Amino acid sequence: MTPTLSYTGVLQTNATGGPHQVWSYAGQLAAGLDFNLEKSLKVRGMSVYVGASWGTGSDMSGFLHSLFPVNSIYGPNYYLGEMYLQQILLDKKLTLVGGRLGAANTLATLPVFANYVNYGINPTPYSLGANDISFFGPPVGTEWGALALYDATPLIQVSAGLFNTNPHSANGEDHGADFALQQGNKGALVVGQVSFFPHQIEQDEGRQSEYSIGFLSDNNSFPDLSGNNNNGGGYWGVFVQGQEQICQPDGPGTARGLTVWASWAYNSKPVVSPIPVFWGAGASYEGLLPARKKDVISAGWIYGRVSSSIPSTTAEQVFELNYNLRIGRFLVFTPDFQYIWKPGGYNVPGAAVAGIQARVTF
Description:
This protein has 362 residues and is mostly beta strands. It contains six helices and 16 strands. It has a single domain (84-361), classed as Carbohydrate-selective porin OprB (Porin), CATH 2.40.160. The protein has helices at 38-41, 60-64, 127-131, 167-170, 173-176, 201-204, and strands spanning 2-16, 23-36, 46-57, 77-89, 94-101, 143-151, 156-163, 189-196, 209-218, 235-247, 257-267, 277-286, 296-305, 315-327, 331-341, 351-361.
């Protein structure tokens, strides 16, 4: 049995923008237990995972009416998280997962995204969950689902997931314990992804480079954003993203250096999708200061075009600049600055958000 426990807190203020200046703090305590069942059940590669979280604090994003949340940890109250059975087969080439899952915890993500504070980047392109809450991971909610990851070759991994579409479950009803399959919903969210690892999957795990292309579709009914009180049916969408380490001053295969990344997502039906088009790009440099080889400085830009069915809107853009100060293996401080153009996609003054995030892993 392997326990995990971490606490992340972020203190932020709007230097400009919003009705007036406020200070906002959000915190999240996350815990998990991973049970290795190889010895007890004599099944090689089988394990069970259970997670939970407890969130506190206030919502700076809601105060600013920003489309992209300025942090990824706001989720007040306590929630049961992912719960799943995992089986690894075929000499670790195939991983099967079933239970209560969050698609965003595994699909459409890149390692470099973890360097950012804004929820628009970390952990996935935000539009995928904003358009379909069933895609989001905890906190706050999860869905019944099944996921398979197969290493087709040492360089190519194929992933596919099938997830329920219960909005109450996705919203964390009953503190994440709403296990009903249908409560006014129908159909399923289907996600497929092909990833290319130029430096091999097991040896590099995407630390130096990873490229993914994916497809998703949901045949549930979604509300019409034009305000006609009609259901607009389902949708399909695609996403493309990648990261590449383009500079390694300590030589090939080393972590120190510059990594650039880009992402794009598209949804086929703007009438039911708040953010039908998403773009993102950025760069992270690990070990810019020779005396601080584990620290990471990152800059990123994201763009979300708001649905034409929402009147008087265009697009919101966010720029983020931060510095991950790593102290030992367990503590990271992240001074962070973000600037938001046209919060919510409306023609209103922009907002500058400054703050610091701290994360401790016990």
